[in-house]
Amino acid sequence: MLCSMTGFAREEDTCEQGSLTWELRSVNHRYLEINFRLPEEMRRLETQLRKQLQSRLARGKVDCVLRYQLADTQAAVLELNKPLLDSLVQQITQVHNKLPEYQPTKAMDILAWPGVVHTAQTDMESFRTVCLELFKSTTDQLVEMRSTEGQRIAMMLRERCAEIESIVKKVRHRHPQVLAAIREKLQQRIEELVSEVDQNRLEQELVYISQKLDVAEELDRLESHLSEMTSIFDRKDATGRRLDFLMQEFNREANTLGSKSADIETTQASVDLKVLIEQMREQVQNVE
After folding, report:
1. Residue 99: domain span
2. Domain count, the chain
3. Long-range Cβ pairs for the range 253-261 (8 Å, 24+)
4. Are 69 and 129 members of one domain?
5. Does the reported pTM lie above 0.85?
6. How far, in Å, CA of 275 to CA of 250, rounded?
7. Which of 70, 86, 266, 278 is deepest in the core (most CB within 10 A)?
8. Residue 102, SS3?
């Protein structure tokens, strides 16, 4: 089953601690490249998230963005660090006793001291658990979208393979007629040029020309590649690189067929094959 490397998934969830949003975007890439954009409080999850994604995808550049918003009840509560506050007041009092000429410290100055005031600790462990579960469902959505796109690509490739098979059959069917026509034309031409024809030499030349123009091997290889394509459609592992290699092989045989062509119809068949192969190659670039 083919899977595309392009896809997008977005999932949201709300819990007691706040709301979470995951966005996953996937595009073509030679290998699997994963980039995370996480809030500082969630960075400890990156290794776990990366392993989870690696177990589901084989290729593609995937950007994973997490956004979260604390609930109002969580974000609005402020707490004093009483031990630190008591220590600061004690030290400030001693300084004022020694230096009474200096202005007394204002309460806001003390509150602005690092660590004196902080927001109440949110239950981040529960929040991280929700984050992991939401990431899994978002990944499921991304995999499903890539699979759906892969099925569309597979359908297009099957259609092009059927057209290639039809062209190969036509060329194979016509080839004996083409060789016979060349043989007859060459024999007539030689008879016009010379009064006596060395039949043995003529037969040798005709055999040589027939071998030079014989495209049976190229047609056999094209059919073999079509058979390989059919088997790839049923594979469950990543097949993009294998398909890309097959496109090169298809194109090589189409070029050789064109270079051996001895009639207009075979030349046109070679051109038609190249067009179909190029259409397939463009789609194969999207396959995982």
Report:
1. 78-119
2. 3
3. 253/218, 253/221, 253/222, 253/225, 254/222, 256/215, 256/218, 257/171, 257/215, 257/218, 257/219, 257/222, 260/212, 260/213, 260/214, 260/215, 260/218, 261/215
4. yes
5. no
6. 11
7. 266
8. coil
- Tell me, yes or no, whether 270 lies in a domain: yes
In a domain, residue 276? The reply is yes
Alpha carbons 177 and 183: distance in angstroms, whole number: 10
Look at the block and give the residue holding tokens 């004022």.
96
Query: Measuring CA to CA, which residue among 36, 40, 68, 28 is closest to residue 52?
Result: 36
The tens-digit pLDDT sequence of the chain (288 residues) is 789 999 999 999 988 778 899 999 999 999 999 999 998 888 999 999 999 999 999 999 999 999 988 766 555 556 677 888 788 788 878 877 777 776 767 777 777 777 776 655 556 778 888 999 999 999 999 999 999 999 999 999 999 999 999 999 999 988 888 777 777 777 777 666 665 656 666 666 666 665 666 788 899 999 999 999 989 988 888 889 999 999 999 999 999 998 888 788 889 999 999 999 999 999 999 999
